[in-house]
Amino acid sequence: MWTPADAPAPTITVVYGVSSRPADQASPAQLLAAGREHWATIETGSHHRRDRTYREDQSPVRNPNATPCYAALRCLAIFLCVQHKRAQRQPKKYHLPKFLRDCAHHKSRTIRWFTHAYRPP
């Protein structure tokens, strides 16, 4: 296998963890599968929504101070959507893009969410 002359040497990373699983359920392969499943849930749950709806990976914002602020605002919007979705009559048909359109078309109602106590319909 060819590698460039200036390529860094391969390294081995050792990771230690603590688990509450019994020994028969904590083999290295089982722990690796559990960790991958956990991160897959995060990837499909939060990051996929942010990337597909907000195109976060293609954001032109490169300021190290602004980027976390924008990410926090996007997470807040997703949280509000999930909360609002639970109050819908047909929650399976209510998704983030529809929520964003509703917010854009009904600005006064959106502002009211932040200024008034929530009352379920």
How would you sum up this structure, described in words?
By secondary structure, this protein is mainly alpha-helical. It has one domain (23-115). 55% of the residues lie in helices and 0% in strands. The protein contains 4 helices and no strands. It has helices at 28-54, 66-86, 96-105, 107-115. The mean pLDDT is 82.
Gyration radius (Cα, Å) is: 21 Å
User: Helix content range of the residues, please?
Assistant: 55-70%
Outline, from the CA principal axes?
extended
**Average predicted confidence as pLDDT:** 82
What is the N-to-C order of secondary-structure elements (H for helix, E for strand)? HHHH
Element layout with pairings:
Elements: H1 28-54, H2 66-86, H3 96-105, H4 107-115
